[in-house]
Amino acid sequence: MAVDLAQIVKAYDVRGVVPDQWDESLAELFGAAFAQVTGADAIVIGHDMRPSSPGLSAAFARGAAVRGVDVTEIGLCSTDQLYYASGALGLPGAMFTASHNPAQYNGIKMCRAGAAPVGQDTGLAEIRELAENWRESGAPQLAVTPGTVTRRDTLEDYAAYLRSLVDLASIRPLKVVVDAGNGMGGHTVPTVFAGLPLTLVPMYFELDGTFPNHEANPLDPANLVDLQRRVREEGADLGIAFDGDADRCFVVDEHGDPVSPSAITALVAARELARNGGRGTIIHNLITSWSVPEVVREHGGTPVRTRVGHSFIKAEMAGTGAIFGGEHSAHYYFKDFWNADTGMLAALHVLAALGGQDGPLSALVAEYDRYIGSGEINSTVADQKTRLAAIRAAYEGHEDTTLDDLDGLTVATADWWFNVRPSNTEPLLRLNAEARDEATMTKVRDDVLAIIRG
Q: Which of 105, 131, 186, 324 is the most buried (most CB within 10 A)?
């Protein structure tokens, strides 16, 4: 294939169209390169429900086995189930998924033993370089005896481990609607929820990588509409939506109204701090609500603010010994889960919190949702640097206004803040704003958008 691998080897993973940008022959090279870069004697591999996933996964396994590496295939799984296997078995891992991308895409999320992330600066650039070097001649066979490839089912163990981290024994009965979006939540939810006092109303649990009902991306409000309607029709206590590889979870309350991922971050942070005696560090990225650090401090914890992106969160988790981390994109990271992200564990925390008291979810989360946010607004721009400079010029030097450059540009006062950051892969600027009231947020949002859009 003549495709430039820089087009598909992204900052944190491999992702591209199959077979136009990559195929099983390239997956085999990635497997051999992964084996060499990790230096592992054994690895674990899993895959999602996309039509191309089993073949790509098997090819990757062949590439690693040729290098003398023993491969454990866990088959169909969610991304956080692969992280569980990597952590519990102490093995580097590879997950074949393109998360919420359309059906023609596929990708690989890779990690070292203990679910430690592999990104551009931690091995992914080397994997790409090796694969490029071997495209003509193939990967050299270093081992006299190839590695073995064996199958192992980890679903029950994964479910039991998650349930061991949250006390669900005494929750009241709850009715929960779950929209799996034809993704891997349809595979994991029935086992994880088994035996709990829940009436489960499943939506789109049939594994189908062509996504016949809606895109498996709950971050887009259009993909929550079916869940919201069903929660109201069923009179359910809440609704939960998972993305395609089921590592992110989104929550709607009993009215079908979306619950901010920042509110979920704050709620879980309070619970994790309580589990740890009211002490611990909580990581949050800079576009989560002001509510998050406020709640963390109120519950005795130490909030640490980071850039957006799982590699930054995981690095801070490891560096600070944090017990929990959350992002506004609905990724939730747990020290007890090898610092990796698991939407399923966050969902169990929500069920435990709701089922441990008598009020509705809307009242429960109100304590953690104190401000008015804009959500993320993307604007296509010709020159990101020029627009950012114009925003800086408009707000710099104002009394009681602070500016920082941790990730893009953040401007804050006592009553509002906004962040504008450039996309790394597209000609976009992403705006998030928050204020103490709707009118102020609307004005700040519109003022900044006017500058961004010229």
A: 324
The answer to whether 248 touches 356, Cβ cutoff 8 Å, is no
Shared domain check, 288 and 148 = no
Q: Look up residue 124 and give its amino acid.
A: L
Task: Identify the domain containing residue 230 by its residue range.
Answer: 157-255
Q: Is the pLDDT of residue 257 over 90?
A: yes
Token pair for residue 164?
């061991």
Rounded to 5 degrees, what angle do the CA atoms 326, 423, 126 make?
Answer: 85
Which of 99, 260, 262, 374 is flagged as catalytic? 99
- Residue 99 is a catalytic residue: yes
Q: What is the DSSP string of 372-404?
A: EE---EEEE-S-HHHHHHHHHHHHTT-TT-EEE
pTM: 0.96
The answer on pLDDT for 91 being more than 70 is yes
- pLDDT digit string, tens, across residues 9-21: 998 899 999 999 9
Number of domains in the chain: 4
CB-based contacts of 449: which residues, under 8 Å, 6+ apart? 377, 379, 431
